[in-house]
């Protein structure tokens, strides 16, 4: 009898210890990382009166919104490789779409991989690394398997019914303006299915008590702009205006910059009604994206996981909607470099309002490490934004750096752009020739009046040239702790 009692007591103690450990684990912070593809700041919370984004707006009210966040390369693959590693593109050597990150930096510890080493479940739903969109929907794209414990690749009607999509070039959807008022329900679209999978994982984590880094990557509003008809019905294309641009403007900017905004001839100088149709399609698709994000956030709250989960919402880059006469990304203007960035969750202090200082997506990795009190890898190049999230408004960065390669008939041009509170300064190197852009944002928020050769701005230009050269030098430094770095790998597919 005594033996049985002893065994019973031991079992109770063991169970109690396990329960206590589970409860302690539940006190640790989780991360829900939401990345939309090609989402610019046409969002209600960012002051866009035409946008209908109630769920993102609600998230912003509950959390902290960064008004001047910028990506490090305004193209999907290089940008995602950068923020998932906390490195600049000159360090990742990933400046093409068709690269896997381990082709250039095989020893890197990615953000999700770091969570795995800390006994978190690292899970991906949808697009986090680069995928050809829509070609790679339903596949693993250029994903990194070392980053995740679990992955889900949703595949919906938007992929299955590509033949219904309107496009400016027959058979072209991913790199060309294309759109569709889709039939069916949200849950039949790829991002709707992705929301379902993310919701299922939240239910699972709530029941198991496992800590998690959960990344939900939406394929929209990237072209093709596919959304159920009800989202199109929320807008009237007649209400949209299209910025004016002509060939005379191109003569005022360096040739590589002009090439970047006229890269795709079929999208240049769209007829006004067509341009309005496409702009409406972007806004409708953004509202669809907002609805899927809302479903996920509702589940987070329903499960009670919101009490110990940091939510981060961002995009890989911005998107032109006719500004500078351009549609899509791949420029060094504000519409392509600027991204939404919102943090929400326990401990996030928004009493002092939005953060208006320039910050970078490369800052995400060190910030997350800091918020969760994890030891960051030594190679990280970004800066922690945690002081902002705690209510401190002392400036962490004076500027944000973005780079871009532009292909021209006479060779590749390399551009770097520095965004400060008052200026945008861009440096172009093309065939050993230097050229510059300078915009005074106090008077020219649209970045249309290039002042680089204006003598009255010579001191400003000289000062910014020193700053950008210093930033480029730092962004090119190779962290010894990163391990191997491979130059010029061959894209695999």
Description:
By secondary structure, the protein is an alpha/beta fold. It has 2 domains: 29-398, Alkaline Phosphatase, subunit A (3-Layer(aba) Sandwich), CATH 3.40.720; 401-482, Arylsulfatase, C-terminal domain. 32% of the residues lie in helices and 20% in strands. It has helices at residues 2-26, 54-62, 76-85, 89-92, 111-117, 157-160, 190-208, 229-232, 247-250, 255-261, 272-302, 334-337, 364-371, 386-389, 458-475, and strands spanning 30-37, 64-70, 121-126, 150-152, 166-167, 178-182, 212-221, 225-228, 309-315, 320-321, 327-328, 338-344, 359-360, 400-408, 411-419, 423-430, 433-440. Strands 4-3-7-1-9-12-2-13 form an 8-stranded mixed beta sheet, with helices on both faces. It has a 4-stranded antiparallel beta sheet with strand order 14-15-16-17, sandwiched between helices. Helix 7 (190-208) runs parallel beside helix 11 (272-302). The model is unreliable at 1-25 (pLDDT under 50).
From the N-terminal CA to the C-terminal CA, the straight-line distance is 69 Å
Beta percentage is 15-25%
Biggest β-sheet strands, sense, barrel: 8 strands, mixed
General form: globular
CATH superfamily of the largest domain: Alkaline Phosphatase, subunit A
Please identify, by name, the CATH architecture of the largest domain: 3-Layer(aba) Sandwich
Number of distinct helices: 15
From the helix content, strand content and strand pairing, which structural class follows?
alpha/beta
- The total count of strands amounts to 17
User: Using only CA atoms, what is the Rg?
Assistant: 23 Å
Task: Enter the CATH topology name of the largest domain.
Answer: Alkaline Phosphatase, subunit A
Mean pLDDT rating: 93
Count of domain modules: 2
Low-confidence stretches: 1-25
Measured as a percent range, the helix fraction is 25-40%
Strand sequence of the main sheet, in spatial order?
Answer: 4-3-7-1-9-12-2-13
Question: Which CATH first-tier class of the largest domain would you pick?
Answer: Alpha Beta
